[in-house]
Amino acid sequence: MFLCSKCKAVISLPKCSKCGFEYKEINDVWQLSDMPDIVVEGDTDKYIGYEYIGENYSGKRKYIIEDKDMAVAKKIQEFTKDGIFLDLACGDGCFTVPVASLGTKVIAGDISNTMLKVLKQKAKANDVSLDNVTLCRMNALDIPLANEIVDTVVANSVLHLISNPEKVVNEIHRVMKKGGCFICIDDVPGKNVESTFDNSAYNNIVNSMYGEYWKALNGYGITPKKFSWGFARNEYCDGVFTNKENVYIERGQYYEMPLKEGFLPRFLARGFSEQVLVPVEKHKIVMQKLIAEFKEKYGEGFDDIVFKGNEEDILLTVYRK
Q1: What's the CA gap between 303 and 313, in Å, rounded?
Q2: Pairing with 246, which of 23, 39, 103, 185 sits 20 to 30 Å away (CA)?
Q3: Which residues of 118-138 are buried (b: 16+ CB within 10 A; e: fewer)?
Q4: Are 32 and 2 in contact (CB under 8 A)?
């Protein structure tokens, strides 16, 4: 079901019987792409992978299967049935792991080996078998799968990180079976959810830290350059796929997110797209100074402050081939 990167013949891993090319498997991950994890310069397609922030992308909650992700996983399983689910840009496995726990066959692909490592750790922490999961380092711009081989596809939180998202959507359409589903996931305002929480202290710290960070970097001649590309997803997908349907998952559950579990570890790891080109040493110098200043100003436990809210409902836009 895979494609040889050399001659494009359909193969079974690891070796191409036509040209003899053989893929390597490293730490249980098939290395199906030799492209770098990040490309932000030049005339080629640009994209951002999360190799260097993989361990910190989800903060201290990286091994937790969130209730909302399990709710989405159950819908994915319903659409996939006994077929194959492609989790494209699977990241730390927020969908792969819960879908695998339901017994569904999964191809989990990401450009970051570090992210795939975290996925394995999440599965182990939750006692979820990956026997039905094929882990692959792959590039979403050139999916190494044969035509019409998977039943469902999710490409969550990735299309805006690629300068040519249309190419990715075309690849998704190519590898999907007729009648298959491309499932897009969006948050939508809850029907009866009113926020009565005062998060001004939390927001003040986050905004202040963000502002002071870039003010300090400006002193080194470094300015933020946000790598995020706009994409009219609905308009483009409407022209590619046969039809679509909307599926709502009602949420509204109360949650708390401590600064030290969400924003802070990701910010410390240069985990936001505008931090991509910030030199590591300059970043460390600035962050070390900022943390010391914030501890002095707000107290040693300033990072214990929490953001309080109610989860938004989830909209699944399901495009069919």
Answers
A1: 28
A2: 103
A3: bbbbbbeeeebebeebbbbbb
A4: yes
Which tens digit of pLDDT belongs to each residue from 156-167?
Answer: 989 999 999 999
What number is the average pLDDT over the span 230-235?
A: 91
Domain assignment present for 159:
yes
- Dmax (CA) of the chain: 66
Non-local CB neighbours of 219 within 8 Å, separated by 6+ positions: none
Burial grade of 4 (CB within 10 A; 0-12, 13-18, 19 or more): buried
pLDDT of residue 188: 80
Q: What is the CATH number of the domain that holds 247?
A: 3.40.50.150
Q: Decide if 157 is inside a domain.
A: yes
Cα distances (Å, whole numbers) of residue 260 to 205, 240, 304? 12, 42, 6
Residues 6+ apart with CB under 8 A from 67: 253
Q: Which residue has the higher pLDDT, 312 or 192?
A: 312
pLDDT, greater one: 82 or 262:
82
- The answer on pLDDT for 192 being more than 60 is no
Q: Which domain holds residue 159?
A: 32-190+228-255+312-320
pTM beyond 0.85: the answer is yes
Beta-carbon count within 10 A of 89 CB: 25
**Structural domain tally of the chain?**
1
> Which DSSP symbol is given to 145?
B
CA distance 168 to 139: 9
Q: Is residue 155 part of a domain?
A: yes
Has residue 118 been placed in a domain?
yes
